[in-house]
Design a protein that fits this description.
The protein is an alpha/beta fold. Helix content is 19%, strand content 36%.
């Protein structure tokens, strides 16, 4: 089994103090194994017990300049 994904772009948005939504563009949706690998990396490098919501999209919202802001917070 592989944890490699065909993710082209992503945005991480903090929607609650302990919840993050990861919107991404990929040819295939992330498998449960791939999602678990991301969660393990978050537990290792950030903090345990954070909630992640994965959402595959066709397009991601960009700034007026055309740049992609990869990390956002709506708190």
């Amino acid at each position: 089994m592989t944890t490699n994904a065909n993710v082209k772009e992503f945005i991480v948005e903090q929607i609650k103090i302990d919840t993050f939504k990861i919107a991404y563009i990929a040819t295939e949706a992330l498998s449960q194994l791939q999602q678990k690998a991301v969660l393990l990396a978050v537990d290792t490098y950030l903090e345990s017990n954070l909630n992640l919501i994965f959402e595959q999209k066709v397009n991601l919202e960009r700034e007026v300049s055309g740049k992609l802001k990869q990390f956002r917070s709506i708190l």
